[in-house]
Specification:
With about 375 residues, the chain is an alpha/beta fold. The chain contains 14 helices and nine strands. Strands 1, 2, 3, 4, 5, 6, 7, 8 and 9 form a nine-stranded mixed sheet that branches. Helix 4 links the parallel strand 1 and strand 2. Helix 1 crosses helix 8 and helix 3 packs antiparallel against helix 11. It is globular.
Length: about 375
């Protein structure tokens, strides 16, 4: 245990911090029994798709062979591998995949609904609360792609309004060579003075997934920990890609608030220590009810949750229960410290989210810099 902050102190101040901001049980996972019961209630909906990918492909070509997807992400090229794999499998589909922050894509879609100018057929976003809202507004096509029954219950809507296509986790990582034998093992170690000036982070008040990660840190370790991190001369930047980019470029030894994999530890190691928080979620996707290309959209969802796609996930985690993770790795939902049930609840309370954002702005300063995907306007992909 690091000497600069005692465990007793961080746990005591952490409990007070959670109460002070009303975090409550935001990180607590629902029991398997209660979660299963909740998932089974009102589970009516369409039957699961029975057509093969090739049959859907041919049907999509007859429809016109065009597809537009709005995907949440940090850089214009972040989904290039997805697009390339889809095009390799279905070469005659004209796929347009637009990457932007989910918090811009969702309001962009809302504005397109309001103005009758809807562009995307599929939305695949981190803003989990929008899928609940859009379902209530009857804006999502209820559809269950093949393999839907194998998707983990918390990663799908029982009626098929949305389904998670990727299992993602955020934590911190470090450069193995740069950190050496004194590498940080838990978030507590990040405030060791030896790391001053050697840490990059995405702004927690710019990305809600990073915000939830930092909220878990504040709840667990207390505001003294947050203040100590603020004194570490952390280089904050927009985009959850930026911390990992800084580490892999050799600019910083540690990156906080970024995605990673526990299956690889070179040249950087992603950390998810037992008993310490990180955060995970299922990236939700849905077909919009007014989609111009619904069959191509169905093809995309079927392909995304197919075994051939899920086995190739970048981090080894799948949204499906019938795909075992690599040796040494558990399913993402089997890590209680991943708080996969806490993140949707956190995202649903927008007033609480705003309080966390503004509080972290007091510690770390206002968000600065242009959005990393660029400014895309009202109708990208049109």
């Amino acid at each position: 245990m690091s000497s600069f902050l005692s465990r007793r102190r961080v746990l005591t101040t952490g409990a007070a911090a959670g109460a002070a901001l009303g975090l409550g049980t935001v990180g607590a996972a629902a029991s398997p029994t209660s979660a299963s019961q909740a998932a089974s209630r009102g589970s009516t909906g369409p039957a699961e798709e029975t057509r093969t990918l090739d049959e859907l492909y041919q049907a999509a070509l007859r429809e016109g062979g065009t597809l537009v997807v709005y995907g949440g992400g940090d850089t214009p090229t972040q989904q290039d591998s997805t697009k390339a794999a889809f095009k390799d499998r279905f070469p005659d589909i004209d796929l347009t995949l637009i990457v932007d922050y989910s918090k811009f894509h969702d309001v962009r879609v809302d504005n397109q609904f309001a103005t009758g100018t809807l562009v995307p057929d599929v939305v695949q976003l981190q803003t989990l609360q929008d899928f609940t809202r859009w379902k209530a507004q009857d804006r999502l096509l209820r559809y269950k792609p093949a393999g839907f029954s194998k998707v983990y219950h918390a990663f799908k809507d029982p009626q098929g309004a949305w389904v998670a296509t990727g299992a993602i986790a955020f934590s911190f990582l470090y450069d193995v060579a740069a950190a050496g034998t004194g590498a940080p093992r838990t978030p507590i170690d990040l405030i060791d003075p030896k790391w001053k000036g050697r840490i990059a982070s995405s702004y927690p008040h710019d990305d809600d997934a990073v915000l939830y990660l930092y909220a878990l840190y504040a709840k667990t370790y207390g505001w003294d920990w947050v203040a100590a991190l603020a004194a570490q001369d952390v280089r904050f930047a927009r985009g959850s890609n930026s911390p990992a980019d800084a580490v892999f470029a050799g600019q910083k030894a540690i990156g906080i608030g970024t995605a990673g994999s526990l299956t690889d530890s070179t040249p950087a190691k992603f950390v998810a220590a037992d008993g310490h928080p990180f955060m995970g979620w299922g990236q939700r996707a849905a077909i919009l009810k007014r989609a111009k290309n619904p069959t191509a959209a169905k093809l995309f969802l079927n392909w995304q949750i197919s075994t051939e796609s899920q086995r190739n996930s970048f981090n080894g985690w799948s949204v499906r229960t019938d795909i075992a993770p690599p040796a040494g790795l558990k399913q993402l939902w089997e890590y209680p410290n991943a708080h996969i049930d806490g993140f949707p609840a956190f995202m649903a309370d927008r007033a609480e989210v705003e309080r966390w954002k503004q509080t972290f702005a007091l510690y770390f300063g206002e968000v600065k810099g242009d959005p990393t995907p660029g400014w895309l306007g009202l109708h990208p992909g049109a």
